[in-house]
Design brief:
Layout: E1 38-40, E2 54-57, E3 63-66, E4 77-81, H1 99-108, E5 117-121, H2 128-135, H3 144-163, E6 168-173, H4 175-188, E7 197-203, E8 208-209, E9 214-215, E10 218-219, E11 229-233, E12 235-237, E13 257-258, H5 263-267, E14 276-277, E15 282-283, E16 308-310, E17 315-322, E18 325-332, E19 349-350, E20 353-354, H6 364-367, H7 369-385
Parallel strand pairs: 2-16, 4-5, 4-6, 6-7, 7-11, 12-18
Antiparallel strand pairs: 1-5, 2-3, 8-13, 9-10, 14-17, 15-16, 17-18, 19-20
Helix pairs in contact: 3-4
Length: about 375
């Protein structure tokens, strides 16, 4: 996979934040009353109206097709901030919806439409080109404050015009999660909007928590029927834990560990440190939100014609805290005697070399998608009962 194709790149955690940025020129705020500035809005055929049909592959090789249907009248909302996907050439993306943005909501957000109204603003994110420049030691042309300001403005517009007292789940990945952490700190924690927060899914990004497991006043989720809490993790193969040079899952300079919540374990009534089977939805078109490198076969002699594949029992995970790192350790429960694959794709590789410090960043969300969707519905029920 080419480095430029890393659509779910870690962005600022992998160097761009540490690089000096060029002084940004004054910019005009986006008007989020204009529907063109949204990737997804309720009640229209847009990027989130994508086919989520899934082939279920059992351990004995038998298959079934799982259809998908969006909720007709969902009781709560989901507000999503997408990861680093822009292929625009500048330091920050434009506001034109490209295939990259459509592809990522297909992978990470559209399935939540079975439970909630989905809102996904376009924003002038720091691009893959800026990330590449920073990773090569250059001066990043990206303006992270501009990206944050766009999402903040979209959030404020949503609260003023669409929320109407409804509960909302906030969802982010990678750069989107980094922005979401700032949004939680500046606009939600201790603010009136905190009363509307069902939960926050801060995925593929370090969430520094205190000794009590809190991000500010927002606690990590410890059970499925809990509202107002935070779900966060970075994922690595159990057989390939974070190397010393990885920034994912690393304790920060202030000694705050990265939070880790295992959504599958919570649904099973277990602690996040307990192993639990993952309800993954893997793309049959490529890794995570990235196309261009075909996934490995899912089973012997199986031709998949649906956009997604789910293989019950093949994957399990638990939160691990080891040395400086805290992360979701993903185990492949391979059985060479059955027809299913004994391994999954999802690693980032450059020139055939796997970048172990990135872990399974490309498929952080896919790995637990079914669990996340089920969990937010449980959380929404708890929120509604308060």
């Amino acid at each position: 996979m080419r480095l430029a194709a890393m659509g779910l790149a870690a962005m600022l955690t992998m160097g761009a934040a540490a690089c000096a940025q060029t002084t940004p020129a004054p910019t005009t705020p986006n008007d989020y009353a204009k529907t063109d500035n949204w990737l997804c809005l309720p009640g229209r055929q847009d990027a989130c109206a994508s086919d989520q049909t899934t082939t279920i592959v059992e351990a004995d090789g038998k298959t079934a097709v799982e259809p998908f249907k969006a909720a007709a009248a969902p009781a709560y909302d989901c507000f999503y901030v997408y990861p680093t996907v822009s292929t625009d050439s500048g330091g920050n993306s434009d506001m034109i919806i490209d295939p990259a943005e459509r592809r990522v909501v297909d992978q990470q957000l559209a399935r939540f439409g079975s439970k909630c109204r989905v809102f996904a603003p376009m924003y002038r994110q720091v691009t893959l080109a800026a990330l590449r420049t920073a990773m090569l030691g250059g001066r990043s042309p990206g303006d992270g404050e501009l990206a944050y300001a766009d999402v903040r403005d979209a959030w404020r517009w949503y609260l003023a015009n669409e929320n109407k007292g409804r509960g909302v789940v906030l969802i982010g990945h990678s750069q989107g999660s980094r922005i979401l952490l700032s949004l939680l700190k500046n606009e939600i924690d201790g603010q009136p909007a905190q009363k509307q927060m069902i939960s926050a899914l801060v995925l593929g990004m370090n969430t520094p928590v205190d000794a009590a497991g809190n991000y500010g006043s927002i606690p990590l989720c410890t059970k499925a029927d809990q509202a107002g809490c935070l779900v966060t993790y970075v994922s690595f193969r159990a057989t390939s834990p974070p190397p010393a040079n990885s920034r994912f899952g690393k304790t920060d300079p202030e000694g705050r560990r990265a939070g880790c919540v295992n959504p599958a374990a919570l649904l099973a009534g277990k602690a996040s440190s307990d192993e639990a089977p993952l309800h993954a939805y893997l793309s049959s078109k490529g890794f995570g939100a990235v196309e261009g490198q075909a996934p490995k076969p899912f089973a012997k002699d199986l031709k998949v014609t649906t956009p997604f594949v789910s293989m019950p029992g093949l994957l399990s995970a638990r939160c691990v805290s080891d040395g400086e790192f805290t992360y979701l350790a993903v185990k492949v429960n391979a059985d060479p005697a059955d027809p299913r694959a004994d391994e999954i794709g999802g690693d980032i590789s450059v020139a055939g070399v796997i970048l172990k410090d990135w872990g399974l960043h490309l498929i952080d969300v896919n790995l637990a998608m079914g669990d996340l969707v089920a969990l937010v519905d449980r959380q929404a029920a708890a929120y509604g009962a308060k």
